[in-house]
Please model this.
Amino acid sequence: MKRFVLLALALVLALPAFATFRVGYGERDITPVEPMPMWGYAARRDALSEGVLDPLYAKAVVIDVGDDKLALVGLDLGRGPTEAMMGEIRAAVKAASGVNWVLISGSHTHHGPVIELLDEPDRGQGKFDYAVTYAKELPGKIIEAINEAAASTVDGRIGWGSRDTDLNRNRHTKKTPKPRDPELAVVRFDDLEGNPIAVMVNFAAHPTVHKMMDLRFTSEWPGHMQASVEDRMATHCFFMQGAAGDMSANTSDERRGIDGFGKAMADVVIEIARGIETREPEQPGVRGMEEQFAFPMRIQIDLPVVRGAFKMAFFPELVEAMVVEFAGNTIRPRMTTLLLNNELAFVSGSGEFFCEHANRLKRESKAPKTLWIGYCNGHHMYFPTREAIEEGGYGADPMVSWVPPGCGEDMITKALENIEKLLSAE
Model:
């Protein structure tokens, strides 16, 4: 009998040890409180905002699996944080909460604040001092949301589901059939009793439904979708944008305006979320790989004539601030590949990727489920496909797409390789 007990104990000790799967949520209001330039439409140039239509938020879920912690953050902003902001955020949440993986996705609302201006002459200082102050304070609010989520984790469950919809359309190509990524994906995080902690929504469509010259801040249709889900499901909801470079919201008479389209989105999200059966993962864990690429730009932004053209198209202080981030006529996009619980893969890119990149990633990925997150951990303009560049048009031309042809394809190829490596890692 004693030998049997010792043998059983030895077998138990030989089994791989998995950490507990824990989930927490945090948020912060990031709505500007003073007038400042708005992000998204060149035609507005440096016109100052004129109030708030609805508030903007940073919403964070932290997944804690022992030695590794992942923060998923949805922002009601036009883009992900700048490179300098990301460095500050990563260091702070690692030191305070042990969060070592961070995905921060801007919803891409075109009615959010400009966040690129700097406390330097000709880059915001003196003329747009509140915008400079806002940019300085933004990382701290995101850090607070992540740390709050990390501090509130409980033992949890996870599940996901998706549906192909007609809620987006291709705004770029004139060719037929027009490519689309129709998938509306939902990830649901519950406590052990099955009560929802948060619902994450992943979908590809530009939040450009609201009137361009309304100078009030708004979270656009993603914010209205989130508010509707939260009200009807009594939980938290956050949005992480997909490969929306060539995807627009497919509005109609039945889903008109940011409120109507947001509620139409929420109807589908709620139906999917309520049908998800969450469970405790069999192998809780987060494994990841992160790359920063370096590509020569299709334009030379440091040339006076080129810089002058951009200043006319946008506004001088914004262009001068962007020159800092794109120094040396080199574009340095970031990509993160994460494998959660050996089942769910997240791949993120710091720009506006065309939908066929995400379609290929999902089609060829070896992971049981794969999601693409765009506008994440930075913003490096448009990433069209080779075919889209050959066709030309907005989003594919050098004015807004600064990477050479094939860069998006190369990044997806690398992501697929990364997923295979992560799946094979012990």
User: Anything to note?
Assistant: Residues 129-151 form the longest helix (23 residues).
